[in-house]
Specification:
By secondary structure, this protein is mainly alpha-helical. The protein has helices at about 1-20, 35-55, 65-105, 120, 125-135, and strands at about 20-25, 30. Helices cover about 70% and strands about 5% of the residues. Strands 1-2 form a two-stranded antiparallel ribbon. The longest helix has about 40 residues, at about 65-105.
């Protein structure tokens, strides 16, 4: 959850602050490449903070995905994997936007007014969860 949330929030603010080049104008006109890069950078920062402060000092009962990836793949491999997971969140968001546009709908539902619907709350989670679960299940 945290990986997707941090990526989405950083992408939003990074895109607002620095966004010049549109990512997919016909599908989701508000998204920019600068937002994508901001989200990816924030995920890497989140992973570093999590491994060094939560996993390292909080006395948790099991490793986080971030620590597991770093142990299994090394720091560079973990970083590439986390960037990939962040990218998959963007893909999930774009696919949901494409489905809404194809249906001629602005929102996926009216259950959460002002949020684009329920699918907008989970669109980035849908592709990330199965991949993260598969990665977490790899034995160290």
């Amino acid at each position: 959850f945290c990986l997707v949330w941090v990526s989405d929030i950083a992408a939003y603010f990074g895109g607002r602050a620095f966004g010049k080049r549109k990512l997919a104008l016909a599908i989701s006109p508000g998204k920019s490449w600068e937002g994508v890069w901001s989200g990816m950078l924030a995920v890497l920062l989140l992973a570093w903070l999590w491994v060094n402060f939560i996993d390292g000092r909080a006395g948790v009962d099991s490793q986080s995905l971030y620590a597991h990836l770093a142990q299994r793949m090394g720091v560079a491999g973990a970083a590439l994997t986390l960037v990939f997971l962040s990218a998959m969140g963007v893909v999930g968001d774009l696919v949901e936007s494409l489905v809404k546009r194809s249906a001629g709908a602005k929102d996926s539902s009216g259950l959460l007014p002002g949020h684009g619907g329920v699918l907008d709350r989970v669109d980035a989670l849908l592709p990330v969860f199965p991949i993260a679960l598969a990665l977490a299940s790899l034995s160290a």
